[in-house]
Amino acid sequence: MSDFIEIYGVSGFGYHGLLEHEREFGQNFTVDVKLKLKKNKASITDDIADAIDYSIIAQLVHRQIVGAPVSLIEHLGQRIATEILANFPVKSVEVAVHKPGAPVGVPVADVVVRLKRDEK
User: Fold this and answer.
1) Cα three-residue angle 49-55-61, rounded to 5 degrees
2) Domain residue ranges of the chain, discontinuous segments joined by +
3) What is the pTM of this model?
4) Active site residue: 38, 39, 99, 116, which one?
5) Contact 110, 28 (CB under 8 A)
């Protein structure tokens, strides 16, 4: 039996990218996260004290999006996953970083880097 928390569409304006104009002008990024919980006592007790506050997770993700720039969205995903694993009782985290304005030379709807990290 596994319990999950999923948060979709945490958005923010960041300055991530390899190219100078990405760092100068920035763009919108969106992140989805899926947390596999170690235990979800809250599902049994119905007590907020036993739950993971997903508003804090959403704020953490947003802080990373609008925070210090990185060259690669792979690294942004890794930073998010590392912070979640270090601070919350989860078995694993999946992070999808969306960069719809990625400069790939042809029209695309979105570029997404998706990673999964497990507790150590």
Assistant:
1) 130
2) 4-118
3) 0.94
4) 99
5) no
Tokens at 13, concatenated: 């304006």
- Assigned token pair, 71: 């060259």
For this structure, is 99 an active site residue? yes
Handedness of CA 26, 27, 28, 33 (dihedral sign): negative
Q: Which residue has the tokens 């030379």?
A: 105
Instruction: Find the helix or strand (DSSP H, E) in which 32 lies.
Output: strand 27-37
Q: What are phi and psi of 5, to 5 degrees?
A: -120, 130
Q: What Å distances lie between residue 43 and 14, 48, 85, CA to CA?
A: 36, 10, 21
How confident is the model over 61-107, as pLDDT tens digits?
A: 999 999 999 999 999 999 999 999 999 999 999 999 999 999 999 99
Class of domain 4-118: alpha beta
| 28 Cβ neighbours under 8 A, 6+ residues apart | 11, 12, 13, 14, 100, 101
Please give the backbone phi and psi of residue 73, each rounded to the nearest 5 degrees, phi first. Answer: -70, -20
Give the full edge-to-edge strand order of the sheet including 4-14: 4-14, 27-37, 90-98, 112-118
